[in-house]
Amino acid sequence: MAAANQIFAWVGTDKSGRKTKGEITSSNLNVAKAELRKQGINATSVKKKSAGFSLASLSAKITPQDIALFTRQLATMMKAGVPLVQSFEIVADGMDNPMMKELILKIRDEVSSGNSFAHAIKTQPDYFDDLFCNLVEAGEQSGSLETMLDRLATYKEKTEALKAKIKSAMNYPIAVLVVAGVVSGILLIKVVPQFEEIFAGFGAELPEFTQMVVNMSRFMQDWWFAGVAAMAAAYFAYKEAHKRSKKIQDGQEKLALKMPILGDILDKSCVARFARTLSTTFAAGVPLVDALESVSGAAGNVIYKEAILKIKDDVSSGIQLNYSMKQTNVFPNMVIQMVAIGEESGALDGMLDKAATYYEEMVDNAVDGLTSLMEPIIMSFLGVVIGGLIIAMYLPIFSMGDAIGGSGH
């Protein structure tokens, strides 16, 4: 296996003796130094370039959308008859993300040195899951890599679009709640104390609602820093526990499916993902039992993962897929019926593809419906919170106006 290329930063002098510096990509430090000598550069310092922390490095992170785009472009190049290694170079040139470009060139170097494409991507498990690697391997072995890449690209595009849709539906209310919290905090810490000084000059008793807001303001002024620190600590503790504990991850996934409205959307998206993944793997010629193994890893929820592994065991012992799916009590009747028809007619991949498309559309419609329903609810919530604080501040002024008006008569 060829060593993965690294970037080295160098400082030295050129043939004319002028000071110069730059970067070179090479497999190791010694090879980098030798290459610089060949170019006539007398290097005084050659160091491996660290990734470093910057906003650019954060934005340059490789996303699943980058992998989907890479797969689609590679499939297009190969369908056009461009050789695999050359395809990598062309696709890498067109990538805006420098980390993605570097990843593609690493894969190209692996393939150039005589390894298979499947072997090359298996060395990058952070970006290519078992399902992706298995399908590429199946494509290489059957001599239909471009067709397999086309199927994989469609699969990645559809699953990522579905994920993005659900994420945007969840992000919207969270963002609004955060904004509401920040605005309320600023009002309580900075604005309410100004009013409190004015109220102190009235000498009259404050209305109950105003007094409650003033008490909240005093509490926030004294404890806001501790509150923010506690929330930040709780968030990072939860993230760490979630990362380390499989039990917490599973518990969260089970709870997510039981949530009102959102649980139903997540449920449908798991069914869509199951149907889409199984359709892609089965159409690729992967045996059903092996395909179910891959599908369980891409299920997206522990309840579905456990159900799919149970189905895999049943199918390997000779039970029909549709009957086993029915026994799990997880899959909708419509999907089970479509699988039964697919098994009888010998067109299982086609029926699963139709089921996937149907459930993806259902998720799309449900998310659109949820977003349009939430907009007025969130606006009302913001109005009540912010408006309530403002009314609380003006109540004593209204009361004082009434008192003055009453004494005038």
In short:
This protein is mainly alpha-helical. A hairpin with a 5-residue loop joins β1 (6-13) and β2 (19-26). It has helices spanning 29-38, 55-59, 64-79, 84-93, 98-112, 117-122, 130-142, 145-200, 208-244, 246-258, 262-283, 288-297, 302-316, 321-328, 333-345, 348-408; strands at residues 6-13, 19-26, 42-48.
Descriptive notes:
This protein is mostly helical and 409 residues long. The protein has helices at residues 29-38, 55-59, 64-79, 84-93, 98-112, 117-122, 130-142, 145-200, 208-244, 246-258, 262-283, 288-297, 302-316, 321-328, 333-345, 348-408, and strands at 6-13, 19-26, 42-48. It has a three-stranded antiparallel β-sheet, covered by helices on one side. Residues 51-58 have low confidence and may be disordered.
List the helices and strands and how they pair.
Layout: E1 6-13, E2 19-26, H1 29-38, E3 42-48, H2 55-59, H3 64-79, H4 84-93, H5 98-112, H6 117-122, H7 130-142, H8 145-200, H9 208-244, H10 246-258, H11 262-283, H12 288-297, H13 302-316, H14 321-328, H15 333-345, H16 348-408
Antiparallel strand pairs: 1-2, 1-3
Sheet/helix structural class? mainly alpha
Poorly predicted regions are 51-58
> Count the strands?
3
Mean pLDDT reading: 83
Report on the biggest sheet. Answer: 3 strands, antiparallel
Helix content: over 70%
